[in-house]
Design brief:
alpha/beta; TIM Barrel; nine-stranded parallel sheet; 9 strands; about 15% strand
């Protein structure tokens, strides 16, 4: 699957989103400039939420599932029309199944061994998770040995206040969860936060 690499390297993580609010939240994110959106599978009705967002905004953003742990889950997500799979771990079988379904693969990694295993299995990018454990120094050390064209996303410990620090360490982008959305937060609140996140990202990137 192709994606406009000029779009911001921000993935909005909507953990806990309900299907009936998914499209409104997605619209707020897209309007703010966040065009990669995932719904973790431990959310209520995640496949329905993803399917609704794909139907409403196909071509305007890339939608997918997070916390994907099995090949069977990959196949279920693929049936929604989703375009990406995000996992907290590095499972070569899940990565291969994702690519076989023509979706983008972003597995979770925390060591150089996991990074290279993920890339050998066909991953499109690497999700450093939980990034707070290794900090910017750990990301910089791994970035030094990784292929320079491989997108590295920091998840867990990144927010608008420290985007520049992570970028300086070699991160391409970020997965933003509870700092952006959490159950009970209104569409209006999410819209404001998303705009602030995008502005901070643009400033950190020098855009």
């Amino acid at each position: 699957m192709d994606i406009d690499m000029k779009s911001r390297e921000l993935i909005g993580i909507l953990r806990g989103v309900e299907p009936q609010e998914a499209t409104a939240i997605a619209e707020a994110l897209i309007r703010a400039g966040v065009t990669r959106i995932e719904v973790p599978l431990n959310s209520p009705g995640p496949l329905e939420s993803i399917a609704r967002m794909v139907q409403a905004f196909e071509g305007q953003a890339v939608f997918g599932a997070g916390t994907v742990l099995t090949v069977e889950e990959v196949e279920a997500v693929a049936r929604t029309g989703a375009g990406m799979i995000v996992s907290p771990n590095c499972d070569p079988a899940v990565i291969r199944a994702t690519k076989a379904s023509n979706m983008l693969s972003y597995p979770g990694v925390l060591t150089p061994t996991e990074c290279f295993s993920a890339l050998a299995s066909g991953a499109d990018g690497l999700k450093i998770f939980p990034a707070s454990v290794i900090g910017t120094g750990g990301v910089a050390a791994m970035r030094a040995v990784l292929p320079p064209t491989v997108p590295v996303y920091v998840v867990g410990g990144a927010d608008a206040d420290n985007f520049a620090d992570w970028i300086a360490a070699g991160a391409h982008g970020f997965g933003i969860g509870s700092a952006l959305y959490k159950p009970g937060r209104s569409v209006a609140e999410v819209a404001v936060i998303a705009r602030e996140m995008v502005q901070a990202y643009d400033e950190a990137k020098g855009l």
